Amino acid sequence: MTIKRKWQLACLDMAGTTVRDDGLVEEAFTAAIAAEEGMAPGSPGYEEALRFVRDTMGQSKIDVFRALLADEPKAQAANLRFEDAYAALVRAGRIAPIEGAVEAIEQLREAGIQVALTTGFARPTQDAILDALGWRKLVSLALCPGDAGRGRPYPDMILTAILRLGVSDVRAVAVAGDTPSDIRSGSCAGASVVAGVLTGASKRDALLSAGATHVLDAITALPGLLRAAP
User: Fold this and answer.
1) Could you list the mean pLDDT of each consecutive 10-residue stretch along the chain, which spans 230 residues?
2) What burial class does residue 217 get, using C-beta atoms within 10 Å of its C-beta: 0-12 exposed, 13-18 middle, 19+ buried?
3) Can you tell me which residues the record assigns to a coiled coil (predicted)?
4) Distance CA 173, CA 19 (A)
């Protein structure tokens, strides 16, 4: 594959973009909120809380619990339970790559583009996913909010990847994700391509409204998009 433009870095989201999640975030959230707050499906406040989780997909999970619970100790406890529940689902084999994601990442790297994976999960959960999929050597870098200071929609993880990987120009960066938070993060970082993908949490209109430069059916279309860029 020949890519004409001087692309240096692709920052790719994980769950919903490169990793098939199949509702595991909601499942882990349900386990956490039931343990900490006694909320279960059908109980008062549960549907409203679940709607908030859906609306904030892609954001740092501790920030989501802080907004929901408005109490730091409770938020920290709920976040730990969420991470434990999600990691248990990962260990149970409940995740897999999005079809064609590995090949797309390999195509980008063969074209000389470094690839960084970003997530709203904490480091232990991101590590569990990387280990379960055998992706440690697949990418140049994997970042979580704790590595950068703030999670999405802030640009911190993308800017941290730019600094760590020696990228010389933010315009040489492409970002892809499945949520409005991914899109806002990429736009704030100054990336030239900020692509939404339709394999995860959000629909086309939501991604475009957030500022996506492109909307792709799947991450498999990203190498072709960069190949065609002027």
Assistant:
1) 72 96 86 80 82 84 88 90 90 93 97 96 91 95 94 96 96 96 97 96 94 98 90
2) exposed
3) none
4) 21
Give dist(CA 119, CA 206) in Å, integer: 19
> In angstroms, what CA-CA distances link 36 with 30, 51, 69, 92?
10, 18, 10, 23
Whole-number Å distance between alpha carbons of 62 and 84: 13
Q: Where are the domains of the chain?
A: 9-21+96-228, 24-91
Long-range contacts of 75-78 (CB under 8 A, 24+ apart): 77/36, 78/32, 78/33, 78/35, 78/36, 78/37
- Classify 9-21+96-228 by CATH class: alpha beta
Alpha-carbon Rg for the chain, nearest whole angstrom, is 17
CA distances (Å), origin 168, targets 20, 67, 148, 165: 32, 36, 19, 9
CB 225 within 8 A of CB 216: yes
Strand locations in 41-132 (E)? 96-97, 114-118
Global confidence as pTM: 0.87
Question: Phi and psi of 31, rounded to 5°?
Answer: -65, -40
The dihedrals phi and psi of 98, each to the nearest 5 degrees, come to: -55, 140
- Whether residue 199 contacts residue 19, with contact meaning beta carbons closer than 8 Å, is answered with no
pLDDT at 5: 52
Q: In the numeric block, which tokens belong to residue 81?
A: 């339970």
pLDDT of residue 23: 84
